Amino acid sequence: MAESLPSTGDIWRQLATLATTGDPVATTSPGDIWLPL
Q1: Is residue 6 within 8 Å of residue 34, measured between CB atoms?
Q2: Closest among 37, 35, 34 to 2, alpha carbons compared
Q3: Residue 2 to residue 21: CA distance in whole angstroms
Q4: Which domain of life does this protein belong to (predicted)?
Q5: What is the pLDDT of residue 2?
Q6: For a surface tag, which of 3, 21, 24, 25 has the fewest beta carbons within 10 Å of its beta carbon?
Q7: DSSP for the chain?
Q8: Closest alpha carbon to 36 in 1, 9, 27
Q9: Is it the case that residue 37 has pLDDT exceeding 70?
């Protein structure tokens, strides 16, 4: 079974990290990147 998508909180935290640092993987591994685009 495929891995579950990140929770809404994780998504917003990742977006906030990207907006703040310009680095979407500052707090996640490359395999965990998933943005609701």
Answers
A1: yes
A2: 34
A3: 30
A4: Eukaryota
A5: 58
A6: 3
A7: -PPPPPPHHHHHHHHHHHHHHS-TTSSS-GGG-----
A8: 9
A9: no
CA angle, corner 36, sides to 19 and 32, nearest 5? 80
Structure-token pair, residue 18? 């990207």
Q: Would you put residue 6 in left (φ > 0), alpha (ψ -120 to 50) or beta?
A: beta
Entry pTM: 0.36
- Rounded Cα distance between 37 and 35, Å, is 6
Residue 10 token pair: 């994780």
Retrieve residue 15's tokens.
Answer: 């977006």
* Number of residues assigned to the chain: 37
